[in-house]
Amino acid sequence: MSVSDATLKALKQLGLTEYETQAYLALVDGGQMAASDVSAKSKVPFSRIYDVLGRLEEKQFIQVQKGRPSMYIAKSPAEVMRILRLDWEERLKESSATVVEELQPLFEKETKQTPRDVWIIHGRASILAKAIELLDSARETVLLSLPSFDLSDEDVDTVVERVLDVKANVSILTSSVNEALKALIPDKFEVRTRERVFGAGLVVDNKFTLIMLAGDEEREEFLGIYSSHNVFAAMATSYFESLWKDSSTI
């Protein structure tokens, strides 16, 4: 079975060894087979095939029909991806809770000893993660400015989806709103548009501020400025309000 290098790389990233990949691809292509047939089709040595098939079963890529001989069947790629995603999300949730529970108090203790009001955040993923953290912590108000409010960006859409779940008072300033998304925006949200909105900014509870600046777009450089100082939040709020007055309600 011939597959692209991209697919082979993806299977490796999902945790399969070279032999496991060969055996899984043989089963995807050949259907139900005995171990000896999988070995012959995949070129995995027969001395290794049972070990390889056992690991594939543990990783939930295949299922085994016991018998004489036992038959091995590949699970559909779509099913495997759903299983892996759910498993990873659960493990990430448990690991995150453990890490935060033990390390966050230590971090906050150190922060109090060496107080800082402004942090520089490097990288788009880190900035988006900080935005999600702030949105989850919002209790009173959220001021959000985005160049466009839609779900076309696979990273930004996570932030947009999280905004829609915020219980605080939310004001959104953008240049355009996706038509399909308008129906999902809660009635209590205030959304306005203006001709152009430069960059992205977030102010939460009149205290926490996050601004994202795009650097060299070809090299995908992004810089975030995060502040927990009231003065910084007041300045950002004042700028937001000046743009807000010169905007239109959707």
Can you lay out the helices and strands and say which pair or pack?
Elements: H1 5-13, H2 18-30, E1 33-34, H3 35-42, H4 46-58, E2 62-65, E3 71-74, H5 77-113, E4 118-122, H6 124-137, E5 141-146, H7 156-164, E6 169-174, H8 179-182, E7 190-193, E8 200-204, E9 208-214, E10 222-227, H9 230-245, E11 248-249
Parallel strand pairs: 5-6, 6-7
Antiparallel strand pairs: 1-3, 2-3, 4-10, 5-8, 7-11, 8-9, 9-10
Helix pairs in contact: 2-3, 2-4, 3-4, 6-7
Which key terms come to mind for this protein?
alpha+beta; eight-stranded mixed sheet; 20% strand; 250 residues; 11 strands; 49% helix
3D structure, described in words:
The chain has 250 residues and is an alpha+beta fold. Helix content is 49%, strand content 20%. It is built from nine helices and eleven strands. The chain has helices at 5-13, 18-30, 35-42, 46-58, 77-113, 124-137, 156-164, 179-182, 230-245; strands at residues 33-34, 62-65, 71-74, 118-122, 141-146, 169-174, 190-193, 200-204, 208-214, 222-227, 248-249. Helix 2 packs across helix 3 (35-42), helix 2 (18-30) packs across helix 4 and helix 6 packs parallel to helix 7 (156-164).
Q: Could you give me the name of the CATH homologous superfamily of the largest domain? A: Endonuclease Chain A
**Class from secondary-structure proportions:** alpha+beta
As a percent range, the share of strand residues is: 15-25%
CATH class of the largest domain: Alpha Beta
Low-confidence stretches: none
Q: Give the number of DSSP strands.
A: 11
Question: What would you call the shape?
Answer: elongated
What's the number of domains?
Answer: 2
- Determine the mean pLDDT: 87
Strand order of the largest sheet: 4-10-9-8-5-6-7-11
CATH architecture annotation of the largest domain: 2-Layer Sandwich
What's the Cα radius of gyration? 25 Å
Share of helix, binned: 40-55%
